[in-house]
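**User:** I keep going back and forth on a fold encoding question. It is easy to fool oneself when nobody else works the same problem. Could you pick a protein and write out its sequence and tokenised fold? Could you put it straight underneath, so I can go through it closely?

**Assistant:**
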Amino acid sequence: MSAGRLVGGGDPRSGIRCDEHRERLSAPSCPGDGPPLACSCRVRAHLRQAIAAFVLIVTLSAARAVSAQPSVGHKVPGTAGLDAGSQPEPGVYAAYRFVYYDAISLRDRDGRVIPIAGFDMDAFAHVFGVGATVKLGRRLHLGTTVAVPVARLSVSTDEPRASIDTFGLGDVFVEPLRVGGVWSRLDLVTSYAFYAPTRQINREGIGAPQWAHQLSAGGTVYFDRDERVRLSALFSYNLYQRKLGIDITRGDSLQIQGGVGGALFEIVEVGVAGFALWQVRDDRGSDLPPVLRGRRDRVYGIGPEINLLVPKLRAKLGVRYMRDLGVRGRPEGQIVVASLSVRLWTPRKPAARAR
């Protein structure tokens, strides 16, 4: 790009371009009796330099280096989207996720609204995680992640004795092993994770915490050579153990999360995310209330997602909104997820062999 084109502008009436006034543009100030063209060109030059610097920061080395965020847990439907089945690049990551879930109705096993006067449920969570991925050979990747959520759960009704308001550490997410493979237009991932209860949030009775195990497998298909447009999906099987302090075991569930989207201008990703969850095994235990026997959860969800890539900082910001659909046996609401991931360290590429 020529200097004249970078600066641009000039007075079209005079037929003079700014690149013909380089000496004036480099002057420390515009003299009061000097020609106005010099001042105009200086302003345009500084504006264009600022814009060019910004574009350089956000677009340098485009795309896949930050195109996949590490998972910090995806047991809650809606917490994984366009990156659900993508393989993160090698490195050490720090990740933060904010989750807000709001529900104003509760559905029974047949999908009918349960009339609870004044029912309102709000759940907030701040999740902090760190993960690492290493590359072995041309395609194989191994990874691990640990994440700790700080959560608040509030359930209110017109009957104060049925209301809940609790705050503390949630279940710790530990993914000791994630295995992935990368091809030119395909990622494949599989992992094992568990959720360890901290008992910091005062949950009792039916809502008591439990250990949970999660087996996941999925992938991402890229539809173009530059990997801008993709379809991603992650299948997970959640296996629950007996709740702490009470003889109730939640039934296992199967879920799918993912989405389809593409990149715009190298720095923005937009798409549509979705999820589906089915409880595939009945709740059981001697302390399970009769009204809950045979009940199984089901929920679908869909909504928009937008991500901002900052390759120069090796960071990614994302926001996703999803609405519950087809709900049975659980609250019906909406979820908002905001996330930030930063790659703190990247392994050096091996030096080329001498020939």
In short: Helices lie at 3-7, 22-25, 36-59. Residues 207 and 243 are 8 Å apart (CA to CA).
